[in-house]
Design brief:
The complex is a heterotrimer of chains A (about 650), B (about 140) and C (about 375). Helix content of chain A is about 70%, strand content about 0%. Chain A is built from 25 helices and four strands. Chain C has three domains: about 190 residues; about 130 residues; about 35 residues. The N and C termini of chain C lie far apart (about 70 Å). The chains are: A mainly alpha (about 650), B mainly alpha (about 140), C mainly alpha (about 375).
Chain lengths: ~650, ~140, ~375
């Protein structure tokens, strides 16, 4: 089977799963809905591995497989065709997505057991994976946009899975609308690129055109900034991150899949794909970096004091995404392929350990009777040993302890930031500040991660009353995915990068990155660096701050209880716990004026309605005036006739007969 | 010394009187007789013109008018009988249910003068053989 | 009549308007209703309105008949019709109203008689006063009205109704006023005279025949034809209207009867005077026209076209006058026979249809009035 067909197959399996689940639901066999889903995901993962291997062993320097373009629609100068491309970047992304999705689907089968909307859940999850694969494989901006919107839709449907709960419905709406704001920018960016890119929407053709005929720097800045808007919305960066913590209302496997491993990484993937464009707009790169840094810091700050385990993990996701953007932001200052490699490597490892952490918290929730407030339970390491060990692996990976996966990727990010901080031609101080901020954030990450760990698993065993008879280790359907992901969290980073540079080498062969490298070389007259190297100083610094954070957390929380907040830190603590009041600010600055405008519009509409009613009122008024003439009395009618006749005859007599 | 105009004027007055009677009176029979009065005015008109033109066409036409008036009278009487059976009244204003929806029915506001029942002070006779209780009145 | 005719003051239209308004008010006050009825004021207004109306009629149209008896009869019957009509319309009790209606019929039939329609008079009396009133009284048995009732004592829209009726009347009378010439002042206008002029039937036939021939003559162009046709015309005309005293034929023409002007020489009523004047006028025209004819045609051997035209140019005017003198004629004295003849010759279809309508009406009456038996 040829590779383009494999690409289509990779899409077809999740889509087929959707239809099969729907069929099962229609035939009232919804309890088997997990079978098509898991099967579809697994087949898709197998196909993507096959494609990955094909690319790895391909003799070409910059392998890329394209499917035949099928014209989707065309109107005038706008010609949109449906093409998919499999190059190293998309292959890596696709494999990550499908692999994690498979294990999360297996976990969901046990987690969502006995739930009412079992089939609905798996149907939408399959649809989500289909759209995500479409997004990853797309070679045309509009096809990518289709996948982009599709994952947004499925996120809405899954966050609002418990639709009867008002907070869940509100959270789903918030997620959809906030990402919509970003999508506006994204679409505008696509339009600008179409305009200046020789009216192409296919990425390969567009990048080719822009390489040959570079547009003005202002246009490039505008286009890249708009694309970044979309990424900000989808990947929950400042200022559009507010939907991600609320999206924890959905079932925990949904949080694991969508809000840790796949959907939120779409923004990072987009920027990685458009690296050839971003290289041409250094100011936008700086903005990307700064945004990532601020987001990482802010999210970590808020995560320091949260009591809801899932909230901690959500803010942690935002923070880690910020790290990825920080790395992407250095793309023009350091070799683009290095920067993108750092970001994508972190994406890869983050997918494993964040999914693991979320599934672990899901296991805890399942055992504790849907209680996730860390103050209500404690000392669970004795109750749930497997969950405990796997969760610990995930925490270590997140904190960036050496050997664990997170260490290698975080180290790469710090490395590129440091390099940018020292060698940037413009904005050097900015990059250096961001580097310092990232170090601080790394320490905070370790602190809050282990705080959550200690509060949950250490101290005396406390089981909340809602647990009932559930307070035991989760069934095998849940623990096996945990174990698999824990193995990945521990060894994934070690396996692919440090010893062999396989990851970075493979990724650098992406044609887009190759183009970006060439542009970088042309701009800076420097040779592109092929592989990242391990800077021991940076590594030591990173490890040091992590250990410092873990130590502080150990001291404060080893008893498994929340510590007393010292008086001078109370204001900061309050700010952190109240999420920096960002939601309230948004409510006052955006939602309230929008509500006022909506109310004003409704009043105006009511006014127009009354105008229309006035128009309809006049005939009724005339009718009401004329209606008493029909009073049913024959003599009255005869009188009317005579009066009319008198008028007519008088007309004849006085006017005509003269 | 012109004479046809006089007859036409009288016919016009008769017609107008009949018209007013038809429009204002509420008794079905009076209304119908007013219509007949109108017909008389018309016949007078026809005959005046017949004389004026020295022609018998007008008289023939008047004969047909009278014929049709007779038919009309017959049917009108039958209808009055049917209507009377429905509502036990010869009042034309009783039949107002064909009015437009929402228009209130016309009701009479003035009260009719009450007349003492006739025969209230007629002497009441006792059945034969019984002694009258009241003194007999002359 | 002279009393009424003396009311010559005022604008005729104003008189009419006054009469109409007074009449409307009179009826308004006379119509029966629980409140607002005033018989005294209504009667007074009715009398006033009648007086004004009659004076207007007399002033505008003159006397209804040339003789006193005709006048008296006309006004008597008219007063009866209108008076009883008013009583009928304003009568509270329907039984009394029906009786008043009967009297209206009688009065109107008197007027029919004055209009030379005795058959219709008899037919109307028989049909109305005989059959219909009896039927009405029969239905009146149904009402059982003791004391005031809605239908008898109330009136629907008295003001609007009487105003509408009298406005209509005013318009019709105004139309009459418009279309009638100022009759009272025009003593020579014989156009609308209603007992016919004293022209006998034979004379009328002769006059109309001559008029028709005159009409043909004026179209002829041939001298001999013209002479042929007009050979005896002069004499025939002269037989009827006589000759001018100054004419040379005054003595020569024997007359079987007196000519029209001679017959009317001693009468003094306006109509006779007008007819006499017309006859004398025709005499003069007769002589002139035929003199002119003979002069233009016989004087020359071959008269030219202009001569022929000149000869016949006075004839159309003569013809008009002859027709005018002949007048409309009279209604035939044998009224019933002639009505029967007219009905069965010209209006045969209408007779059949009238009969059919009567049949259908009878069946309809029976069908409507039958009490429907409720099916068990």
């Amino acid at each position: 089977m040829s590779d383009p067909d494999l690409a289509l197959l990779a899409l077809a399996f999740p889509l087929g799963a959707v239809f099969l689940v729907a069929l099962l639901a229609a035939l009232r066999c919804g309890k088997y809905a997990h079978l098509p889903t898991i099967g579809g995901f697994a087949m898709s993962a197998a196909v993507s591995v096959v494609m990955l291997v094909n690319l790895l062993t391909s003799p070409e320097a910059h392998p890329a497989i394209h499917t035949e373009p099928i014209t989707w629609f065309s109107a005038g100068l706008l010609n949109v065709s449906f093409t998919l491309t499999v190059d190293p970047l998309s292959a890596i992304m696709l494999t990550t997505v499908t692999f994690i999705a498979t294990w999360i689907a297996i976990f969901s089968a046990s987690y969502m057991h006995h739930d009412e909307g079992y089939a609905r859940y798996f149907g939408i999850m399959s649809l989500f994976v289909f759209f995500m694969c479409l997004l990853v494989l797309a070679n045309n901006f509009l096809v990518l946009l289709a996948g982009w919107e599709g994952v947004g839709l499925c996120s809405y449907l899954l966050v609002g899975y418990y639709y009867a709960k008002p907070s869940a419905a509100a959270a789903a709406r918030k997620a959809f609308l906030v990402t919509r704001l970003g999508d506006v920018g994204f679409v505008l960016g696509i339009f600008v690129l179409w305009r200046v890119g020789g009216y192409h929407t296919d990425m390969t053709l567009l990048f080719e055109h822009i390489k040959n005929v570079p547009p003005s720097s202002g246009t490039m800045v505008a286009a890249c900034l708009l694309l970044f808007c979309g990424a900000v919305g989808k990947s929950a960066q400042l200022p559009l991150y507010v939907w991600l913590p609320d999206a924890m209302e959905g079932p925990t496997p949904v949080s694991a899949l969508i809000h840790a491993a796949t959907m939120v990484t779409a923004g990072v993937y987009l920027l990685a794909r458009c690296a050839p464009l971003f290289v041409l707009a250094p100011s936008v790169q700086m903005i990307v970096c700064v945004t990532g840094g601020l987001t990482a810091f802010l999210a970590a700050f808020i995560a320091l004091t949260q009591t809801d385990l899932k909230r901690v993990l959500a803010y942690s996701t935002v923070s880690q995404l910020g790290f990825m953007f920080m790395a992407l932001g250095t793309s023009g200052v350091v070799t683009p392929s290095l920067a993108v490699t750092a970001a994508i490597f972190h994406l890869f490892t983050h997918a494993f350990f964040k999914a693991l952490l979320f599934l672990g918290s899901g296991s805890v929730m399942h055992a504790m009777g849907n209680v996730i407030d860390m103050r209500k339970f404690g000392g669970l390491r004795r109750v749930m040993p497997i969950t405990h060990i796997t969760f610990l692996c995930g925490c270590a990976a997140l904190a960036g302890l050496p050997i664990f996966a997170g260490f290698w990727s975080k180290d790469q990010i710090l490395d590129v930031l440091d390099h940018a901080g020292h060698h940037a031609l413009r904005y050097q101080m900015v990059y250096f500040t961001v580097f310092a901020l990232s170090l601080l954030t790394a320490g905070m990450t370790a602190y809050y991660t282990f705080r959550a760990y200690f509060l949950t698993f250490w101290g005396e065993t406390t089981i909340p009353p809602e647990a009932g008879h559930h307070a035991h280790e989760s069934p095998r359907g849940m623990t096996i995915p945990l174990i698999v992901l824990a193995i990945g969290a521990v060894f994934a980073g070690l396996a692919v990068e440090p010893l062999t540079h396989g990851f970075s080498g493979f990724l650098a062969r992406t044609p887009g990155l190759h183009t970006a490298n060439e542009a970088y070389a042309k701009r800076t007259n420097l040779a592109p660096t092929e592989h990242p190297h391990l800077n021991l100083t940076i590594a030591a610094a990173g490890t040091g701050v992590s250990l410092l954070g873990i130590a502080v957390a150990f001291v404060l929380f080893r008893s498994g209880k929340l510590a007393e907040v010292p008086a001078p830190l109370r204001p900061l603590h309050a700010m952190s716990q109240n999420k920096m009041y960002v939601d309230e600010v948004y409510y006052g600055a955006v939602v309230k004026p929008a509500e006022l405008l909506a109310n004003g519009s409704r009043q105006f509409d009511g006014f127009l309605d009354s105008l229309a009613r006035l128009v309809s009122f006049l005939p009724r008024l005339m009718a009401a005036a004329l209606r008493p003439l029909q009073n049913g009395l024959v003599q009255f009618y005869a009188l009317g006739m005579i009066l009319g006749l008198a008028v007519f005859v008088s007309f004849v007599v006085f006017k005509v007969s003269r | 010394m012109i004479s046809v105009w006089h007859y036409l004027a009288v016919a016009a007055v008769l017609f107008a009187l009949g018209l007013i009677g038809f429009l204002t009176r509420r008794n079905l029979i009076t209304m119908f007789l007013s219509a007949e009065l109108m017909l008389q005015g018309v016949v007078l008109n026809l005959l005046a013109f017949s004389r004026f033109h020295a022609n018998l066409s007008g008289q023939a036409f008047a004969l047909f008018v009278v014929t049709v008036a007779a038919c009309e009278a017959g049917i009108a009487m039958a209808l009055f009988i049917v209507l009377y059976r429905r509502n036990k009244s010869l009042d034309a204003s009783v039949w107002q249910s064909n009015r437009e929806a929402g228009v209130p029915s016309s009701v009479d506001t003035d009260a009719l003068p009450t007349v003492a029942a006739e025969g209230a002070d007629d002497p009441k006779l006792q059945p034969a053989g019984a002694k009258p209780q009241e003194p007999a009145r002359v | 009549m002279s009393l009424f005719a003396a009311m010559q003051t005022g604008n005729p239209l104003g008189q009419l308007a006054t009469a109409v308004v007074l009449g409307a008010l009179a009826i308004y006050w006379l119509l029966p209703r629980p409140r607002g009825r005033s018989i005294a004021i209504g009667t007074f207004a009715a009398i006033a309105s009648t007086v004004v109306l009659v004076s207007w009629v007399v002033r505008r149209f003159g006397d209804p008949a040339p003789d006193l008896v005709g006048n008296i009869l006309f006004w008597l019957f008219s007063a009866g019709a209108v008076g009883f009509g008013t009583i009928f319309v304003c009568q509270r009790n329907p039984g009394r109203g029906a009786i008043a209606f009967a009297f209206v019929i009688l009065s109107v039939c008197g007027l029919f008689l004055l209009l030379a329609a005795p058959f219709l008079m008899a037919a109307t009396i028989v049909i109305y006063a005989g059959a219909i009133i009896v039927t009405f009284l029969f239905v009146l048995m149904l009402s059982h009205a003791d004391g005031p009732t809605d239908e008898n004592d109330r009136t629907r829209e008295p003001m609007l109704g009487s105003l509408a009726g009298f406005a209509f009347l005013g318009l019709v009378l105004f139309a009459l006023y418009q279309s009638s010439p100022a009759a009272a002042s025009d003593t020579n206008n014989l156009e609308y005279a209603l007992p016919a002029r004293p022209v006998s039937g034979e004379e009328r036939a002769v006059l109309l025949e001559i008029a028709e021939q005159l009409g043909e003559v004026t179209k002829l162009q041939d001298k001999d034809a013209i002479l042929e046709k007009t050979k005896l015309m002069r004499d025939r005309i002269a037989e009827i209207v006589g000759v001018p005293p100054t004419s040379v034929d005054a003595v020569a023409v024997p007359s079987k009867r007196k000519s029209i002007p001679d017959r009317l020489a001693l009468l003094t009523d306006p109509r006779s005077i007008a007819t006499k004047t017309l006859g004398e006028e025709i005499r003069q025209m007769n002589v002139k026209a035929f003199n002119a004819l003979e002069n233009n045609l016989l004087s020359k051997a071959n008269p030219s076209a202009t001569d022929i035209q000149k000869s016949t140019e006075a004839l159309p005017a003569l013809r008009e006058k002859l027709i005018y003198l002949a007048g409309r004629g009279e209604l035939p004295a044998r009224n019933v026979a002639n009505i029967g003849y007219v009905l069965y010759s010209e209006y045969l279809l209408a007779i059949e249809m009238a009969g059919t309508i009567l049949l259908v009406a009878t069946i309809g009456t029976v069908a409507i009035a039958t009490r429907k038996r409720v099916s068990a």
